[in-house]
Amino acid sequence: MQFPPQFLDEIRARVSVSDVVGRHVQLKRRGREYVGLSPFNKEKTPSFTVNDEKRFYHCFSSGNHGDVFSFVMFAEGLTFPEAVEKLAREAGLDVPRATPQERERAKRAADLADVVEAACAWFEAQLAAPAGAAARDYLAGRGLDDATIGRFRLGYAPDGRGRLARALKAQGIGEDRLIEAGLMKRADDGATRDYFFNRVVFPIADRRGRVIAFGGRTLGDGTPKYLNSPETPLFHKGRVLYGLATAREAAHKTREVMVVEGYMDVIALARAGLDHAVAPLGTALTEEQLVELWRLADEPVLCFDGDAAGERAAFRAAERALPLLKPGKSLRFVTLPPGEDPDTLVASRGPAGMTALVAGARPLVEVVWLMQTRGRADTPERRAAIERELMQRAAAIGDGTVQQHYRQAFRDRLAAAFGQRRAPQPGRPRGGPNWRRQPPGREAPRPAALGLAARGDVATVKTAQERILLALLVNHPGLVEGHAEALAEIGLADPSLDRMLREIIHLCGSVEGVDTAVLKRQLTAQGLDGPLATVTDGRVYRQAACAAPDGAVDEADRAVAEFLAWHRRQRMGEDRAQAQRKLADEMTDENARALQGIVRDQARGGS
What we know:
Elements lengths: L4 H10 L2 H5 L6 E3 L2 E4 L11 E4 L4 E4 L5 E2 L1 H9 L3 H12 L8 H29 L4 H9 L4 H6 L3 E3 L5 H7 L5 H6 L3 E3 L5 E3 L4 E7 L5 E8 L7 E3 L15 H11 L3 E2 L3 H9 L5 E2 L8 H10 L4 E4 L3 H14 L10 E4 L6 H18 L2 E2 H10 L6 H16 L4 H19 L39 H18 L8 H6 L5 H16 L5 H10 L3 H7 L2 H6 L9 H33 L3 H17 L2
Parallel strand pairs: 12-13, 12-14, 14-15
Antiparallel strand pairs: 1-2, 2-3, 3-4, 4-5, 6-9, 7-8, 9-10, 10-11, 15-16
């Protein structure tokens, strides 16, 4: 049985090789690939690799190589048609039948691809012709040079009825084919007209770089300002990302992909050397587009305007992504400065400005938190409503493991924001089995989790707490990402420890796959071997067992969250004392309002 090549390509695009292979082979990520023990040979050292971007597996010990279909045939003993049908069901596709009609449909799609390519070449020629002067002026005004115009194959659709049809008639392309390709439309009275006219034309390509549709930007007063091709046998707007073919190679090298709003943003970033940007086609991201993005990078960065519309768009993307989350697959979010878009930002600040902005991108969990906590939370009832809504958001996540971690993350944030405390279980030290029980009546101001006895003055106790925090991060660097923003906001009393904290945040945020060994080497190279030795001292581990290399990660995560909550309360207490002194010195309305604001914040923070 023969299947249309486009259908097999769609299955390969929707079903990742690592997901299928991972049901039979335990895989671990290594750089851009996954590795595991060969399913074809008995071996002790992994020689089997899976590459989702290239959509194949390879076994170095046996020489076996193939795609998702061949692996299912091998692992489950299926024929090729059976493997196709099985994977098609997983991808949510109906299997086409090898009927004469299906064969004719595949031939027709190939014919339409030729029509669209011919139209693209004609649009390019019109841009270079005298009639394209206004379009060239527009592109030059947007900072585009000839090389960029050629690279993205930009063109011009001139004004006037039927010009494209007359031009392509010489190539044997009639109006019916142009209508089917979305390049002309027929009115109710039977008259035909060009779909694009007096517009700068942006070719839209599939993942292989083949032109399948167009976007057009009007040069006059026509509406809409931007217009995309209609749905055709080649083009389905919700499945395509503008710039995908260009971004794939860059994303393969960097494991990064950025989602921006429109064509010009993608082009401007590429011209600035940031080739890993794509854009949806005038709509919110769809599930299919999100899956496509996760093939390029584990955590695509979504850029939104810094206004109310941008916030709404970010929330819509977050909501749509939640059911699709899997271990290691998430999103990050960047809010652009007011009045800026990627095009203007790289023009004013250069590529480094955009790169710096992306480095501070917020994780998805934080955006979901903001979705539910923007309103007032000053009563138990409102806080209960927030908690209920957060848990409903977590319940939408399809993967059980990811859902569990989101629930815990929300509980920790609720505890930090509203001062909630879990009652200790009978006969168990507060904070879990890894915490050292403290003698009663000897507690100094401290994080609730870090149960340190107050041996010495408050400054000494604070330094000990800060060493425990850094030990937690050094031995569990995977925790940094989830608390990066809160960690960046605090300042440690010990200057050397504070510098060490900054280096840890920087390394974990800029270097992929940082583990404890890499972290220690980098900190030593930065001249922080002395502070590192005090942090990894056995006495620190005796004070908080979960800070040790073999400490429980969930306990360590809770300890970091509680330290940050405690630090916030301490800072707010200091701010309140300073505001009280200022009000005592100058009894003004401004100082009174400032103190009242701090008091309200403390109430919300559980102080």
